[in-house]
């Protein structure tokens, strides 16, 4: 570590986590017990045009710098107290040239727009072509790549933006780009490459106990796959454009924070920077060991395999680990060491959850009235709707809140189905609409959407357990985990307890843990997780058998809505053939 110019030694050892989400960059400072001392966020720009969703890496870095400085200021933290730094971000795709300057990935030609955002669905047709190749690497992502993964997006750029394609020197996942921008080291993370680029991480099984390995040669790329899908030029220079070297999450990068990046962030040059994680996976690292002491079996390596982490925000990711590799159709993985070292990761997901609730609320006739009333009461729209539902249940003398939606059913696949159906063409369904446009009707529609999302999670959990997992406990983090009705409905519908972490900012904590591991204070990521994770509230499923019977019935309807959709899709295809 570079010597500090500060006149005093740090009084505390703090770890800084940075999380770049879809709409903002956030920074959080944590102490050695994993307690949050201060956080701040800064908005980032986004361009949406149909299926295309784009951002600017320049804008993102400026937002990161603003968030870090503000977080340090709010927490009254001196730069010398920050001992390690870690980044987490959405799995968006960044394009830069040989000078590390942005290269446009936009049909607009705007050079600022050099990031294809994770949710971008421009490459659906490319994904279908890649999947038709039946490449062996596809076995490790549920049998099919999603248009949200990087190979289809890369193929789209090559086919539609030839000039940009020829200019790009590095294609990087956003969290890897952030680490590169901070350290000058373009080593990629096993998390990003394995989960989003078809990299076969288990090629590094023999490296897992090599504490000195920093930049492992990237031996997990399948060159035949890239050749077969028409991207053989990415193999050149030992895969220089997509990653010549990889590292386990938390491994220290380069010589730490560069002087330039340190000045921009308001930190000390040379502090260790850990290899990054995708934001959802950082949430997993920040929460998966947050179990009550009575349940935490210190030396039982299998205990962690009974848990699933829900990282629920704009979308929801469902993370579970196993000691053996489990191939589950329609569910991403198995990804070796992509989240917890030496464990295989299974990753389910719903592409629109918080985004779906926002969409339903904002497009309702009562939206403005509800938003204004929530603002006047200084509470969120979700909190207001939850209060309205509590009032309605009393007025109607119903036994439980879920029964309010007996006539309304929602299939939440408004942005396709990521898991377990792996159908990007799936559409959302709202069954039970009337001419009612009242605030009460909006509250019921919101509740039905929450339930639809929870039925989707139940489908994923049941599918994983039917294919070898033994999930019996859910840990939840992210913005939606702060919504009491969202969490209680999930507990009732899935039928198992949901543990919330002590620190609600689990993604930031996961990112900070990467910085802590990079300092070598902990032997490995697992040890750091057990030290810095801590449990909070536990939400149990309802013990009322009527609640279970009701949700079982609605779950059958939920499953039927998709089966009907397939039938109708087939009927129309035949009619148009």
UniProtKB/TrEMBL annotation:
One of its GO terms (cellular component) is cytoplasm. GO terms for biological process: pentose metabolic process. Keywords: Kinase, Transferase. Signal peptide: none annotated. The keyword Kinase applies. Residues 15-286 form the Carbohydrate kinase FGGY N-terminal domain. The keyword Cytoplasm does not apply. GO terms for molecular function: D-ribulokinase activity. Residues 309-518 form the Carbohydrate kinase FGGY C-terminal domain. Pfam families: FGGY_C, FGGY_N. Belongs to the FGGY kinase family. PANTHER family: FGGY CARBOHYDRATE KINASE DOMAIN-CONTAINING PROTEIN (PTHR43435:SF4), RIBULOKINASE (PTHR43435). This is FGGY carbohydrate kinase domain-containing protein. It comes from Phaseolus coccineus (Scarlet runner bean).
